[in-house]
């Protein structure tokens, strides 16, 4: 039998050959890590995405296999310096400073001067990152952006950022905002994870007020903290980060996993807790024959109206898209919805609260009403052995030997966001088993799951059952 080492090596070589063949077929070359990041025409290629995942899984498993375990575990314990360094990068505008310096890079004494910090210390931070393939040290003490660091670029000039720092992340990809949010308030809270889990008063709590976040920031839930005077920059950055996540995540699992076309002309889709409506916009573009109501808290609605005025004013004017104030912990006023849709809502709430939201929707549902949740579905690191196979879409392709069933680090984004939710809100992303347990007794039944290799998010479709 092939050893794990050579099986991983085979996966790598066949995967790399496939990737190069796909690029060659399109007359393109694989992007250099030294060039700035730009979305490419092949980014959405299904077969490229699938092969890339296998290569990532094989490469990281190979490292886990060959690296001496004491080195792996000791380095893992030190890895918090990476996000701490990234926070410096984002706060000191280092990506933008190096973009303005151009491909010849900048010496640390100039970087220090331009960002207003100590050149030697900034240099050590950049070297740590360059050693991890984020930035390049192109000559001793001279750094430049590379493909990975440039993904943090807001695209704005340093002068413009300094002139209006609070607006730094407005109208950007949101990646820098997301990294800023994760490495600032969430990382600062995350160091209290053990304290929270080992304290009997907080260990099993489902309250946002008892989340790890509260321990760090003085018994205040994350969202309330962000809305406090003095946190205006953080709040605006959080908004930009969430919008960025929406635009970065491929929406095809949402758009294709349910037969939206089968809904009658003018059928009503309710985007519950829809934010400014960025996901309704995706649906609206694909299915303009439907009507949409975005339900939100009152303070979000003016931003939502501004968003639609800039993106699809006609939809607002014609009434095809409407905003309605609604608290999803109160009874649902809309009784004729074809679909209740929620993206990234249920993951904000621990089971007790999530069940309340689901029950209110069920109480106002017609027998034909569908509930669609668009969220991460946490893949088990173990094989499910055919469990849940009666639900279409529940089975993921079997990972080739000797890869982990969830392809290991390919699933990092999901398991890390799951912990992010625990730290911030005492909430969670869910496995299929946890999702089935969650809806038990709410009057909803999971009937199918839509996936796409281009996005880690899934579309989970529920139908009504007798309560
Ligand atoms: C993570 S965001 C998701 C927004 C949107 N669904 C999206 O995917 O872009 C959670 C949203 O829930 C809204 N929200 C929080 N509590 C709410 C409540 N009790 N009733 C209605 N909306 C609420 C927030 O205002 C926020 O816009």
UniProtKB/TrEMBL annotation:
Domain of life: Eukaryota
A Gene Ontology biological process term: methylation
Keyword Methyltransferase: yes
Keyword flag Methyltransferase: yes
SUPFAM superfamilies documented for this protein: S-adenosyl-L-methionine-dependent methyltransferases, Winged helix' DNA-binding domain
Domain O-methyltransferase C-terminal: 207-381
Name of the protein in question: O-methyltransferase C-terminal domain-containing protein
């Amino acid at each position: 039998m092939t050893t794990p080492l050579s099986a991983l090596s085979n996966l790598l070589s066949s995967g790399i050959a496939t990737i190069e063949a796909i690029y060659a077929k399109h007359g393109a070359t694989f992007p250099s890590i030294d060039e700035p990041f730009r979305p490419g025409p092949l980014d959405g290629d299904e077969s490229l995405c699938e092969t890339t995942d296998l290569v990532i899984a094989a490469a990281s498993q190979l490292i886990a296999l060959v690296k001496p375990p004491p080195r792996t575990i000791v380095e893992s314990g030190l890895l918090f310096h990476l996000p701490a360094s990234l926070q410096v990068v984002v706060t000191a505008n280092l990506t933008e400073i190096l973009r303005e310096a151009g491909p010849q890079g900048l010496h640390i004494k100039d970087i220090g001067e331009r960002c207003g910090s100590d050149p030697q210390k900034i240099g050590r931070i950049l070297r740590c990152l360059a050693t991890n393939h984020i930035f390049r040290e192109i000559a001793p003490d001279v750094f430049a952006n590379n493909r990975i660091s440039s993904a943090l670029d807001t695209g704005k000039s340093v002068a413009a950022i300094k002139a209006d720092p609070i607006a730094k992340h407005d109208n950007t990809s949101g990646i820098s905002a997301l990294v800023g949010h994760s490495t600032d308030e969430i990382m600062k809270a995350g160091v209290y994870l053990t304290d929270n889990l080992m304290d009997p008063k907080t260990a099993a709590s489902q309250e946002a007020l008892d989340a790890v976040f509260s321990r760090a920031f003085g018994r205040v839930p994350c969202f309330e903290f962000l809305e406090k005077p003095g946190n205006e920059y953080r709040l605006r950055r959080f908004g930009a980060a969430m919008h960025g996540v929406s635009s970065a995540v491929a929406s095809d699992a949402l758009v294709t996993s349910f037969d939206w076309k089968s809904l009658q002309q003018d059928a009503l889709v309710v985007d519950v807790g829809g934010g400014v409506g960025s996901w309704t916009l995706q649906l609206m573009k694909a299915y303009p024959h439907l009507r949409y109501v975005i339900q939100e808290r009152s303070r979000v609605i003016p931003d939502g109206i501004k968003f639609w005025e800039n993106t699809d004013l006609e939809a607002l004017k014609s009434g095809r898209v409407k905003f309605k104030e609604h608290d999803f912990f109160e009874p649902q006023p809309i009784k004729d919805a074809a679909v209740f849709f929620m993206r990234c809502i249920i993951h904000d709430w621990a089971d007790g609260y999530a069940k309340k939201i689901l029950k209110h929707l069920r109480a106002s549902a017609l027998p034909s009403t569908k509930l669609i949740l668009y969220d991460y579905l946490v893949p088990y690191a173990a094989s499910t052995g055919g469990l849940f196979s009666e639900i279409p879409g529940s089975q993921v392709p079997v990972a080739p030997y000797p890869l982990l069933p969830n392809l290991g680090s390919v699933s990092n984004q999901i398991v890390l966001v799951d912990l992010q939710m625990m730290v911030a809100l005492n909430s969670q992303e869910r496995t299929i088993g946890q999702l089935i347990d969650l809806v038990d007794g709410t009057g909803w039944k999971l009937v199918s799951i839509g996936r796409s290799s281009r996005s880690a998010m899934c579309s989970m479709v529920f139908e009504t059952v007798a309560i």
